Request: fold
Amino acid sequence: MRDVGVVIVAGGAGSRVGGTELKQLRWVAGKPMLLHSLQTFQSLAEVAMVVCVLPRQYAGDPPPWLFQCDMDRMLISVGGTTRAESVGNGLEDLPPECRTVLVHDAARPLVTTGMIERVIAEARRGHGAVAALPVVDTLKRVDAEGRITASVPRDGLWRAQTPQGFPREMIERAHREARAAGTHAAATDDASLCEALGLPVHVVAGSERALKVTDEADFARADALAPLPE
Reply:
């Protein structure tokens, strides 16, 4: 079934990396960061449409390398002032046949097809699905002076990644009700919007390859991981 819609969020400023170039348009592991995710999602036959959410100044004049992709299955949407607003804009642009929706951060360029397929399969069961990894490190709570105040049990703790997948009516409801409640802007991921309504969200196995590129050192890490098998 070609019924999956994907919203790739690439609307942020990427200020933690520094410089003037937009982080999600920089080259990493052999190609522009956004192009990695776009081509990976479009490699799956069940994906009907991928919406790339770009900052306003780029949405009207996208980078030419975007047009290497399947243009029949790609749309450009304008990013908002917050991540949640950008996702909402992307959701509005998905065609009606997209009944399962995945949301992905362009800052995770090495997402694997295995992760994506696991999220799709779980979301098609009628609830939310989040690619995630169990926490294996010892966790410490630290005060403003850097002093450890407590050790935090790691049992049951997972590190959320993207993609995150949902039945379309579920994620649209979560965004709609968060806007009405005034909590939309504070959301750091889409699963949290569903959790706030008591809607079920399950984890599926993520991947260490799907690191989030947030600073300069992460570009080197992604370059090192890219040639490794999934």
About this structure: Residues 108 and 212 are 5 Å apart (CA to CA). Helices lie at 33-42, 56-59, 83-93, 113-123, 168-181, 190-196, 216-225.
